[in-house]
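Ticket #4471: structure export looks truncated?
Reporter: QA, pipeline team
Priority: medium

Steps to reproduce: submit the single chain below to the structure queue and open the exported record.
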Amino acid sequence: MNPYDTSGTSLNENAQQHAEIKEWSFGIRCILVVLHILPLFFCTTALLSAPRLATIFEDMLGSKQKLPILTLLVIDHAFALLVLVWLLAVLSVVLIFVLKRARQVWATALLTLLLMVASALVFNAALYLPLADVLKALSGGELSP
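Actual output as written to the record:
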């Protein structure tokens, strides 16, 4: 059979292959979206706990001003940071399903995933490392500079 033949069986096979490729593409895009859930969860829980941690820091230290600058920024702007992280996640999901070229989808997914993982690490470190230092100082250890 000639591969350039436009008979019915060849067109049917091409249509089946095209449909299978679309199914795989959709599945891979869904997996890329699911990968964004874990860093989004960590960012959300850290930023939602920021106001409670601020009151804990004030009770233990007497003032928030004794905290590191990054911790103060995260505590003071927790809601705005939470909105930004969620906007980044929603934008990423929309772009993953709207973009047609595979390279653009992979680049978008990886870039936003890296940004979300990095922000989750920064938010958690900014909030929980000072808390660990305060608890260490209360238990008899020295407060790190």
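Status: closed, not a bug. The export was complete when the record was re-opened. Leaving a note from the reviewer for reference: The chain is about 80% helix and 0% strand.
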